[in-house]
Amino acid sequence: RRHTLALGRVAPAGVLAWAPPVMGIPLAAYVSVGLLLVGGIAALPLAVGALLDRIAPHIARHALPVLAVERARRLRETAAVATSGVVASLALSVALTVMVASFRDSVTQWLDAVLPAQLYVRSAGGVGDTNHLPPDFVAAVARVDGVARVDTLRATPVQLDPARPAVALLSRPLVTAPGRALGLPLVGNPLPVPDGTQAVPVYVSEAMVDIYGARAGTWLPDLAQAFAGPQARGVRFFVAGVWRDYARQHGSVVMDRADFVRLTGDARVNDLALHLEDSADENAVRERIRALAAQHGAGDRIEFASVGQIRATSLRIFDRSFAVTVWLQAVAIGIGIFGVAASFSAQVLARRREFGLLAHLGLTRGQILGVVALEGLAWTLLGALAGLALGLAVSLVLVHVVNPQSFHWTMDLVLPWARLLALCAAVVVAGTLTAWLAGQAAAGRDAVRAVKEDW
Hints:
Strand order of the largest sheet: 5-4-6-3-2-7-1-8
Distance between the termini: 36 Å
Number of helices: 16
Structural class: alpha+beta
Mean pLDDT: 84
Low-confidence stretches: 176-180
């Protein structure tokens, strides 16, 4: 009944949501989610009263809806208790749905940004940076009929901190033509290198920001240890931008290939991104490149993958990884509906005299069941609205706090309204049907007999 106490739990939830992680674990964010759920459920009587007070005047001329709405309105605490399970389970289901949809949409956009070419060739059989493509083979691929442009990629592990896993240093062409984009899914705009400095611009992933503090506009001195040659003496590395990297959780650094070759003198590559001509046949290009690889002794050391294959495989792995969330949602909703069934069953058994009185006043058994079903509709509809609101609030914490603090990457919030509304509608239908079934036994002859016993 003390709504200020209930709402007072929501305020610290907002503060805790932005607290830093503890030993890499977002403990404060988890407490925030718990406070949101507890505070939201405790404030249900206030929400029930506010909504039903506005509905009541519009149904004053309809007897059955009046009976259902007025009872829920006068016994709002009972309605809150009955629907609290639905609210909690639906809120978590909504939050999980929003988080997975947001992550999948962000991964899809990321794949479109990091896979601009139609065909990819990579060295096979090596671990890390141990297997490379022959230089003469790389030069020959650029002259194959149907290939418009070849972008090379070198991935080198770099140990910036002995206590942490290695960071991936990626060298690739970043500026291939005037006005051409970097080809990286940047978070924000790239920064120019400060004037008067002999610096090399690099672009770090979001994990580098969280783990090593490499924010845009700062310097990255730890990277200098990866370049031990005399041509790299005195070189400083300027963080020109931050980009999203969903493939490397421990951090990655991207620099222009020309800078990498100049500082190391090493022009070896691991991967080739082939931009094909508009009229080129992808299968024919593959056969020509296989023939070239055989000529240069690399026939068994290359692998092909089209952008469609990589994209489909990546999304299939993603969907398989999160397939269990569908079953978790079904279990959560089932538990919530079971709570509604138990509450309604207990109430209708205790209300046999009430149902008997309604029967003596002229209501048929079907009308009495209609009242019970309308009560279930009113309660579960309120629970669905409250669960949807709480779920959206929890999803904000999951997407913008828990995910970056746990995995060191961000994503855009996506609200799949069709799925969310279908989820809420399923809960309302199931709750209404559950209430109607619970009232079956109590609305029969036993209810009339219970009234007669009082006489």
